[in-house]
TrEMBL record:
Alphabetic keyword roster: Kinase, Phosphoprotein, Phosphotransferase system, Sugar transport, Transferase, Transport
Origin superkingdom: Bacteria
GO molecular function, one term: protein-N(PI)-phosphohistidine-sugar phosphotransferase activity
Pfam families referenced in this protein's UniProt entry, alphabetically: PTS_IIB
Name the record gives this protein: Uncharacterized protein
Length: 121
């Protein structure tokens, strides 16, 4: 399945158990990214919907309470070329979203490195 075009914006899926807390986190991350001048599309996602949503993601950010599912989430993301990172605990408990921006930057660096390795093979 082809990824949906977002005119160069990073496509970020924030996954939590039922999708409720990820909706709040997604709002804060959108706001922080906007303040930082980053082009992002951020979507909340319940764990049960991840397989359908990850196909359009560049980055999957995982709520801390899903640590036991991290391997499963990484496998789903890898099938679609997305990078996975665990959200900081502070994000899930009222952070302003700025603490997530380094994770997005690190995921971008990881993807660029991976793509350059694939191109050289």
């Amino acid at each position: 399945m082809a990824k949906v075009s977002t005119n160069g914006a990073r496509r970020i899926v924030i996954v939590c158990g039922l999708g409720a807390s990820s909706a709040f986190v997604a709002h804060r991350v959108r706001h922080a990214a906007g303040e930082a001048g980053l082009a992002v599309v951020v979507a909340p996602c319940a764990l049960t919907d991840l397989e359908d949503r990850v196909a359009d993601a560049d980055v999957v950010l995982v709520a801390t309470h899903l640590a036991a599912h991290l391997d499963e989430i990484r496998d789903a993301a890898a099938r679609h070329g997305a990078t996975v990172a665990m959200l900081p605990e502070s994000t899930m408990h009222g952070g302003d979203g700025h603490e997530v921006l380094p994770l997005i930057a690190a995921a971008d660096s990881h993807q660029e490195h991976r793509h350059s390795q694939e191109s050289s093979q």
